[in-house]
Write a structure and sequence with these properties.
The chain is α+β, with helices and mostly antiparallel strands. It has helices at 15-18, 32-40, 45-53, 124-134, 161-169, 171-174, 247-254, 301-309, and strands at residues 21-25, 30-31, 57-59, 62-63, 70-71, 76-80, 93-98, 102-107, 142-143, 152-158, 175-185, 192-201, 207-210, 218-229, 233-240, 277-285, 292-296.
Length: 310
């Protein structure tokens, strides 16, 4: 799990940067936790765990959070003198979790996951790449899945190509829980239900739904649970069994309860200037460490206000 990163920038250790770290050199093979307790925290396991949790431990210039990372003679372990030294201060992207292999972020509405290859528009991937570059980290972000421009919530990006490939090839086995909440138009008739259809795109990149299997369609299954109703709208939770493009938006159009603000897929109202859909939970098995991880993002307060105001 440890990485040498021989191509890391030599400027990483210039005088300004060096003042931010305390350097320790590994003299014999051992696990990271043992090294921290012996060399850094004077046997204090709780403090060692805090350093890892707070992303303050670097092994050969890479943030390392796994306590059992094997160390080799000659490696460099650094402890940041303040937590989250290379933080990302961006109104559209908040980092929830980061290790040597992946980044979990909370995306604000109004920004694309990726821009077209020839496009110059700002996007989440570009922001993460710039963040990694500023931190002198010799890696780039790799897109694993996407959220629509006006959908907010949790996403995971890989920091290595092989990690991206594991996610994409084994998505159904790795991702154990994905949930969304949305405000939809009208009063939902049922408390719970499942929408199952085949989704396909036309030449204008509009997604359509077919109740029967089609040659170009991909099976999409959405489970829903109505949380709250008002006179004109409902707050609904969704659990995805599949992760198709525009899946929730199109399935709610199928039920004649389009997501509020989703003018592209049938909504008649747009009271807060965005699609009222939020990816609030993401749980998966770490593709490298096999640790079970779960992340939750607060549902936007505007959703609750919207339910009370209509």
């Amino acid at each position: 799990m440890s990485r040498n990163n021989k191509q890391a920038s030599q400027d990483y250790y210039n005088r300004k940067q060096a003042n931010h770290y305390t350097d320790y050199h590994v003299r014999q093979p051992q696990e990271l936790m043992d090294f921290l307790m012996a060399v850094v925290t004077s046997g204090n396991r709780t403090r060692a765990k805090q350093l890892l949790t707070q992303r303050m431990v670097y092994v050969d210039k890479v943030i390392t959070t796994q306590y059992n990372t094997p160390l080799r003679d000659g490696q460099l372990v650094q402890i940041a003198k303040s937590g989250h030294l290379h933080t990302l201060n961006n109104p559209f992207v908040h980092i929830v979790y980061e290790d040597a292999f992946l980044i979990v972020i909370d995306k604000a509405p109004g920004i694309l996951t990726n821009a077209p290859l020839e496009g110059r528009e700002n996007n989440v991937k570009r922001i993460l790449d710039e963040y990694l570059k500023r931190g002198n980290k010799p890696v780039r972000s790799h897109t694993v899945h996407r959220l629509d421009r006006y959908t907010s919530g949790l996403m995971v990006f890989a920091k290595r190509r092989d990690v991206q490939e594991i996610f994409m090839e084994h998505w159904q086995e790795i991702v154990t829980d994905r949930r969304y909440e949305a405000v939809v138009e009208g009063r939902m008739e049922r408390d719970t239900g499942t929408v199952r259809s085949w989704l396909y795109d036309d030449k204008r990149f509009m997604t359509h739904s077919s109740p029967t299997e089609t040659e170009e369609g991909r099976l999409a299954i959405t489970h829903y649970h109505t949380l709250q109703r008002s006179d004109n709208c409902s707050l609904v939770e969704f659990k995805l069994e599949t992760g198709r493009k525009n899946q929730i938006r199109v399935h709610m159009q199928d039920l004649h309860h389009p997501v509020v603000g989703d003018l592209k897929y049938g909504a008649q109202t747009d009271p807060i200037g965005r699609v009222c859909l939020h990816a609030y939970r993401l749980a998966f098995i770490h593709p490298i460490t096999h640790e079970q991880l779960q992340f939750d993002s607060p549902v936007p307060v505007e959703f609750g206000k919207l339910m009370k105001s209509v």
